[in-house]
UniProtKB/TrEMBL annotation:
4Fe-4S Mo/W bis-MGD-type domain segment(s): 47-103
Keyword Cytoplasm: no
Gene Ontology biological-process entries: cellular respiration; Mo-molybdopterin cofactor biosynthetic process; nitrate assimilation
Name of this protein: Nitrate reductase
Family: Belongs to the prokaryotic molybdopterin-containing oxidoreductase family. NasA/NapA/NarB subfamily.
Originating gene: napA
Protein EC: 1.9.6.1
Cofactor entry: [4Fe-4S] cluster; Mo-bis(molybdopterin guanine dinucleotide)
Subcellular location: Secreted
Species, as recorded: Zobellia amurskyensis
PANTHER family on file: PERIPLASMIC NITRATE REDUCTASE (PTHR43105:SF11), RESPIRATORY NITRATE REDUCTASE (PTHR43105)
Top-level division of the source organism's lineage: Bacteria
Pfam families registered for this protein in UniProt: Molybdop_Fe4S4, Molybdopterin, Molydop_binding
Length: 775
């Protein structure tokens, strides 16, 4: 029988070998890895396979988890999932290994006299509820806050929103998606009046060109990148890498174009200039389906506390927009972007060719940007001017970094300004929420409060006296983390953290709540292509580890809101989802019923008449289009998408004589975000045991720096010491260094700048000034 210890060990060894092959394929993206994952599974493995989504990035790969005797023992790609078609990346194959970690949180811990004491969960939840009530009674409802996650399930995010906004009556709810996807949200909203991409992953099968804007897809989204490489081999599709450093994506692309940090704004305008000058504008499309606007300029960088900004859009016409672009000729932009005139014209010609289909992909390079909303708008401009949008193989596509940053943050509404449908500032949206939640409409505040960065600034100032952090690790991930660590240790702020593992954030908590991992609870995620995926509980949680949804409900009930949270423990996931679906009824955002999601490997919203809508705003595919035209951008009152006039503006902090280098931060293929899960997977930790700082060889030579030698990186905010990396994985341009942020022992975010896009409030982790010296 397969349940023998020997066979299980052999099975794990074979899975590890298969994973190592996949790791190689992910690290060297010229190799497309095989989809026959089951080759690593013994023929006599009598496992119970259950479907679900991957726990890691926002691609939303379908997985099958093999369970035996109540334990999860294997993972393979779901061949029925159109997302990954049976493929998984190195993190996906290994994901279940971390849940057996020896330091797994299995019981609640309460800090007493400076030490953590194991405490029954019910007693810990009593304390959480009493501290919330105490803070509200003494300091008002806005003295309590909750900070959630794009890793949270849709039910978790929904209950967090209902609890904070509908029950307590505060908008002090924000999430870590503010740190990664907020600029995509505001970009879509300002250009189209509705959030999330209009296309889907099937675009990969139709596009002639893929332009990746500051996006190392080979490491960040390796399964999607492998699909692009497949099309490159099969059809001759071409990949253009457009970035500030050379990465593994660059080496696998047909062409790599490097630009100076921040100048993507000018380059996008230069492409639009060329499109107009060469007569490549799709005039019929633009006249019927587009309008033109400009907003305020010199809008600040959010560096001061309580920063406030309200844009003032102004309608313009095509001629005014054309006049504005005269400052962005390729000849002018080339001088400060360091991109040749030839390459700017090459990119413009790709977009301008009416016979070529183009998809633009981006992630953090554009979104983590002090002008993140603007650069999103500018790439949409390119697609709108050429009419290359909302069609198979034509469109702009913002990728996400977390498994449900779309479903749980953007759709459910765990941003301070959002509701499960609409925004808190809209009276009709508040009325809808109040009706579904069965609360007085006046209980839901009409003004947003704190976005993520400002929320932790408020903790530092003492304006927030209670904060509950769920499924995220802000003391590693926030910009300028050195400011917030002492604040969260203050007695004036009671800190609750619910998580699966100990982290630097749990280290400062007054109460640590043990959370269930995703396969230990049922739930739903929403991925980058608007795909909602459902899974059922597969294995039991260890000890008293409990789903966050249920812990929220238990605390809400203890605070006197029993009537608002009538869900059963056994079936609360389904009950909550069915309630949530009421917010999105209709052709513009209908969610698939559970009966469909139980059978299929996800469904794309809008789900209308039993069918996913793959391409929005195109009447051929989207039943919500109602203007009688081929395209209908129904998010805007006039049915037209907006082409925005947005200028180039400098970064808030640039290299100077004292701090002569740009610092850029990001991720690596082996680790996910702050590493709290992947660093507990032995094969991944061994492959990438610590962070490092990349140098251009010329800079390393001039400074006398050798590989592996410790280097101190210092900014005006803090410092971090890491080993040097030269000519290894990535290659920054001269005058730039790159550091991955996964390593909690090397806190590079102590160094980063807490500037952000004034519209989206998303921080810029890609650009600040530092000096380097041998440690």
């Amino acid at each position: 029988m397969y349940d023998s210890l020997t066979n299980r060990r052999n099975f794990i060894k074979k899975m590890a070998m298969l994973s190592a092959i996949t790791a190689a394929a992910s690290m060297f993206p010229g190799i497309v890895f095989a989809s026959e994952q089951e080759k690593g599974i013994p023929d006599n493995a009598n496992l119970d396979w259950k479907k679900g989504p991957c726990r890691f990035c926002g691609v939303g790969c379908g997985i099958l988890v093999g369970t035996e005797n109540g334990k999860a023992v294997a993972v393979k790609g779901d061949p029925n999932s159109s997302v990954n078609k049976g493929l998984l990346c190195v993190k996906g194959y290994h994901q279940i290994m971390c849940i057996q970690s020896k330091d797994r949180l299995k019981t609640a811990l309460v800090k007493k006299n400076g030490k953590y004491v194991e405490t029954p969960l019910s007693e810990a939840l009593d304390l959480v509820a009493s501290k919330m009530k105490e803070s509200i009674a003494q300091n008002g409802k806005d003295s309590v806050a909750m900070y959630t996650s794009g890793q949270s399930t849709i039910p978790e995010g929904y209950i967090a929103s209902k609890f904070m906004k509908g029950a307590i009556g505060t908008n002090n709810l924000d999430c870590n998606a503010r740190l990664c996807m907020a600029s995509a949200v505001t970009g879509f909203l300002t250009s189209f009046g509705a959030d999330e991409p209009m296309g889907c992953y099937e675009d990969i099968d139709h596009a002639d060109y893929f332009v990746t804007w500051g996006n190392n897809m080979a490491e960040m989204h390796p399964v999607l990148f492998s699909r692009m490489l497949e099309q490159k081999a099969k059809r001759g599709a071409k990949i253009i890498d457009f970035a500030t450093r050379t990465t593994r994506s660059s080496t696998a692309s047909d062409k790599s174009i490097l630009f100076e940090p921040q100048t993507d704004l000018a380059l996008a305008n230069a492409i639009c200039y060329e499109i107009i000058q060469n007569g490549w504008v799709n005039k019929s499309f633009v006249e019927k389906h587009c309008s033109f606007s400009k907003g305020l300029t010199n809008i600040g960088y959010g560096l001061e506390d309580n920063f406030q900004f309200t844009d003032k859009p102004e309608k313009i016409d095509f001629e005014a927009y054309k006049e504005f672009l005269k400052d962005y000729s390729p000849e002018k932009v080339s001088k400060y972007s360091k991109v040749s005139v030839k390459d700017i014209k090459y990119l413009a010609a790709i977009y301008g060719d009416p016979n070529k289909k183009v998809v633009s992909y981006w992630c953090m390079g554009m979104n983590q940007h002090t002008r993140g909303t603007w650069i999103n708008n500018l790439v949409y401009n390119i697609h709108l001017l050429t009419g290359k949008i909302s069609q198979p193989g034509n469109g702009p596509f913002s990728l996400t970094g977390q498994p449900s940053a779309c479903g749980t943050a953007r759709e459910v509404g765990t941003f301070t300004h959002k509701l499960p449908h609409g925004v808190v500032t809209n009276e009709k949206d508040r009325e809808m929420a109040a009706k579904i939640w069965k609360v007085p409409v006046e209980r839901i505040p009409s003004k947003p409060t704190y976005h993520a960065t400002e929320m932790f600034r408020a903790v530092d100032r003492g304006d927030i006296n209670f904060i509950w952090v769920q499924a995220t690790n802000p003391l590693v991930s926030l910009p300028k983390t050195s400011r917030y660590r002492p604040a969260m240790e203050k007695k004036s702020c009671f800190v609750v953290v619910s998580d699966v593992f100990p982290t630097p954030t749990t280290d400062v908590a007054d109460v640590i709540l043990p959370a269930s991992w995703h396969i230990e609870k049922g739930g739903l995620y929403g991925n980058s292509e608007r795909r909602t995926q459902y899974w059922q509980k597969m294995v039991e949680s260890p000890g008293e580890a409990t789903p966050d949804t249920w812990m929220f409900i238990e605390v809400a009930r203890r605070m006197g809101f029993e009537d608002l949270f009538p869900y059963s423990k056994e079936n609360h996931v389904e009950e909550i989802y069915n309630e949530y679906r009421q917010f999105h009824e209709g052709a513009k955002h209908g969610m698939a019923p559970l009966e469909v999601l139980k059978k299929e490997s996800g469904a794309i919203w809008p789900y209308v008449n039993g069918k996913s809508t793959q391409w929005r705003y195109n009447a051929k595919y989207d039943p919500a289009c109602s203007n009688g035209e081929d395209f209908h951008f129904y998010g805007k009152p006039d049915g037209k998408a907006v082409i925005w006039q947005r200028p180039f503006e400098d970064a808030p902090e640039k290299p100077d004589q004292e701090y002569p280098f740009w610092l850029n931060t990001g991720r690596v293929v082996e680790h996910w975000h702050t590493g709290s899960m992947t660093r507990r997977i032995p094969v991944l930790h061994q492959a990438m045991p610590n962070a490092y700082v990349e140098f251009h060889p010329d800079d390393a030579k001039s400074l006398g720096i050798r590989n592996g030698k410790n280097i101190k990186i210092t900014s005006r905010r803090g410092s971090c010491t890491l080993p040097a990396s030269i000519n290894e994985r990535g290659l920054p341009t001269k005058g730039q260094v790159f550091v991955p942020f996964f390593d909690e022992n090397m806190l590079i975010n102590d160094v980063t700048l807490d500037s952000f896009c004034p519209i989206s409030k998303e921080p810029d982790y890609k650009k600040c000034a530092v000096k380097v010296e041998r440690a």
